[in-house]
Amino acid sequence: MDTPTLYIANKNYSSWSFRPWMAMTAIGIDFEEVLIPFDDAAGNPSIKAVSPTGRVPFLKHGALTIWESLAIIEYVAELYPDAGLLPRDRAERALARSVSMEMLSSFRVLRSACPMNIRRPKGRIALPDGVDADISRIETIWRDLLQQSGGPFLFGAFSGADAMFAPVVNRFDIYDLVSQNDTLAYMETMKAHRAWRKWEEAARAEPWIVPEDEV
């Protein structure tokens, strides 16, 4: 099997890149990484030269190119069906896809107000209307799934759904947005995962600073 190549942007800021990278690293597959940094407000024209959408992440596997975080995770889950990125139970798979799609398409107020930033010192900011509703909905998703599965991850073992919510874990943490014990426990579980720690270490070592993401 050809070794897939995942194209990503800055690990400190790129929430979309974080998701498939964490999923692929968590299950221990062999893949190559190409990082094209966003190092100014206009991004990096090198990405448009190689990406079908002009954005990252995207995955190259042989002659095939797959873009969008969730599509990449789903593709890898099909390549490695025993790796656990999707729950084995059909009903749980449907639920995992539902919450992953909700993460993909929703919570825009939270994402806009609180950009992912691994290096940011923890501290609160003034929040616009709508952030509290996004936080409440995400906490409800996590709480319901953790109660059903028994944890420590959303569907028991680590899955692609956890990877989809990884950037939110960072946002909740660095902007000090949550205080519920079950939410905090899940966040600690995520931050203790070896894939998270590997990404964080690399993010903290990056030289690039994007001012508009330094809230």
TrEMBL record:
**Where does the GST N-terminal domain start and stop, copy by copy?**
4-84
Recite the UniProt keywords alphabetically.
Answer: Transferase
What InterPro entries does the annotation carry? Glutathione-S-Trfase_C_sf, Glutathione_S-Trfase, Glutathione_S-Trfase_N, Thioredoxin-like_sf
Q: Which GO terms describe its molecular function?
A: glutathione transferase activity; maleylacetoacetate isomerase activity
Cite the Pfam families for this sequence. GST_C_2, GST_N_2
* Origin: domain of life: Bacteria
**Which Gene3D superfamilies does the entry link to?**
1.20.1050.10, Glutaredoxin
Q: Name one GO biological process term.
A: glutathione metabolic process
Q: What is this protein called?
A: Glutathione S-transferase family protein
User: Where does this protein come from, organism-wise?
Assistant: Rhizobium sophorae
